Amino acid sequence: MTAAMSHSGPTPSEARGDKGIILLVDDESVFRELLQSFLQSRGYTVHTEKNGRTAARWIAAHEVDLVLTDLCMPDSDGLELMMELRQQGAGVPVIVMSGGVHGDVAVVLRAAKLLGARRTLAKPFALEELAVAVEQVLQEART
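The structure corresponding to this sequence follows.
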């Protein structure tokens, strides 16, 4: 099953006993590695990319249950990634993270919601807040 196909019955990750396959996209390597380690410790399979362009190429060829992306990245940002996913027909749910552009976090997170983000997280956020958002979005996608 590819990301573009709709989910009916158990997802590939559920069939394997995993909690889910997450594509994590963030240009800040330390932050990306922290979130990857945290999510893996919670039982998720996590693949990382550093920008929206490489993430869009990866997701076109791999199964994924959730995309967790930063909005502000060089080369191709999170909004561009969301638009690319929409063009690909990928029905994968997206959680967007952002510290804002010039401090205006609310505006960029609102834009992400309008483009279909299931949840938004303003940086900095608590890891438990991330865990709850991921669990809720994956649960909603499976029902």
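Confidence is low (pLDDT under 50) at residues 1-10.
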